[in-house]
Amino acid sequence: MKHLTIDEIINFVTIDSISKENLELAAAVNGHILVCDKCREKVKAFQTVSDSLTGMLTPKTDLDFFEDIDM
Amino acid sequence: MAFFTQQEFHKMLFELTQSDAVCYNTLINIAEKTLYKSVCGWCNQTPVLKNCEEDLMQEIYIRLIKKCVTGFIMRDGVINDDPEGFKNWLFTVAKNIRNDFAKKMGAKELYEPNTPDGELPEGVCVDTAENDYDYDLLNRCFCIVLNSDSKVHIPLTWVTMMLVIAKGGLTRIEATESVVNICDGMNLDQMLDFITKQSETIIWLNLNQCQLDDVRKKLDEKDSCGVRTGDKKYSDFYMKKGAKASVSDWVNRMNSRIEKEVG
Q1: Which ipTM value was assigned to this complex?
Q2: Which residues are B75's β-sheet partners?
Q3: How many domains does the structure of chain B reveal?
Q4: Which of B48, B57, B65 is the mutation pick for testing A, counting most A CBs within 10 A?
Q5: Residue B181 and residue A59: Cβ atoms within 8 Å?
Q6: Is A27 in contact with B204 (Cβ distance < 8 A)?
């Protein structure tokens, strides 16, 4: 069985739109990780990192915050 | 089952587990049927989400496609044939997307589903499993720190540091400098005020009032010279190695405690 490459996993984890290509990639990855524990764990790990970054990073800092810093 | 039938659920499982021809039609149909009304309710109730229901649904579909196997279908290496659990998982995903979306849009307050219009449908119990990694775990870390028996300036340092990182998206080194800049001239009472005020603007953070009251009690304690802890300058606690090194050291101590407790 051919395992998923890191590129495939990253492309899958970072899918941000529903296009024909993305659906094909998702189908291939999901189809594989159903039967491959090793790749499933890798995908999960990448998803965890991706989720935690989304949760932690605040792209915009509000101005009040810097006013508070200056006080 | 009010949202989708047993047959629909099994059709979806079949479509998602045929590794040679995975297909998402039934997954999307079920998600729309189950979630759309609630998503509209959330959007109507939350000013920053007004008219965002279609965008939210798109995000939900994308998340479901990416997470259906790792998040629900495969549990402990076997197919998770649990329609009720699937319904709850769908709402968990939707709620997380709503929170992320609101956060992106700069919401300071989030509609919570305990008002009549946007209540979660009867029988839906939002599974917090997906939340555990980020918001719930982060909140737990704050609890551990605030409950710790360390000298009060140490947990206050950690909490300030995390608020600075969460609000400013700073690196650890930048955040250490910011904490020193922010707190250097403050006494510990002022630090707690700063923390309370800033924490209110972070939607995922739920600082427990009892824990804050415990911190206040510690600040009211007096030392052998009769000086109230809250009146002491933060800078008076710096160690010989300097401000930044002290801040870094205190944060590390709290991190070790968290690591021990969270595992």
Answers
A1: 0.79
A2: B78
A3: 2
A4: B65
A5: no
A6: no
